[in-house]
Amino acid sequence: MEHDDSSERQGVVEIENRVDHPKMYRVMLLNDDFTPMDFVVLVLRRFFGKNEDEATAVMLDVHKKGAGTAGVFTLEMAEMKVMQVNQFGRMNQHPLKSVLEPE
Ligand code: TYC
């Protein structure tokens, strides 16, 4: 359906995507060797609404696998989360980084 060439169909697809299927983006946290585990848990609670147990599980997943999902959002929200995480890390002199990935 996404690859239908008829311009009428394409218009419908664009409207469907905009209205009730907005493209979604995954905010990934990246592991590093220096950011304290407690700080990553704090970030997940503060910016992603996780409780202590959820935040700890995500943090450990990132720590073990190198990257992991903090949340899935519309582009605007995902971009804001990435900026908040990266700025909060910088402000606290930690190298913590997050990135976006299209769903
Ligand atoms: N690897 C870090 C440590 O051992 C913890 C950590 C977890 C850092 C997740 C970043 O996104 C991260 N202190």
Structural account:
- The chain is an alpha+beta fold.
- It has helices spanning 7-19, 37-48, 52-65, 75-91; strands spanning 24-30, 67-74, 97-102.
- It has one domain: Ribosomal Protein L30, Chain: A, CATH 3.30.1390.
- The chain contains 4 helices and 3 strands; from the N terminus they run αβααβαβ.
- α2 packs across α3 (52-65).
- 20% of the residues are buried.
- Bound molecules: L-tyrosinamide (TYC).
- L-tyrosinamide is lined by residues 29-33, 35-37, 40, 59, 62-63, 96.
- L-tyrosinamide binds at residues 29-33, 35-37, 40, 59, 62-63, 96.
Question: Could you give the topology of this structure?
Answer:
Blueprint: H1 7-19, E1 24-30, H2 37-48, H3 52-65, E2 67-74, H4 75-91, E3 97-102
Antiparallel strand pairs: 1-2, 1-3
The structure holds L-tyrosinamide.
L-tyrosinamide binds next to strand 1, helix 2 and helix 3.
Number of helices: 4
Which regions have little confidence, pLDDT < 50, spanning 5+ residues? none
Could you tell me the number of beta strands?
A: 3
Overall pLDDT, averaged? 90
Question: How large is the share of residues in beta strands?
Answer: 15-25%
Roughly how many Å is the radius of gyration? 17 Å
Helix content: 40-55%
Q: What is the helix/strand order?
A: HEHHEHE
Question: What CATH architecture do you see?
Answer: 2-Layer Sandwich
CATH topology: Ribosomal Protein L30, Chain: A
The overall number of domains is 1
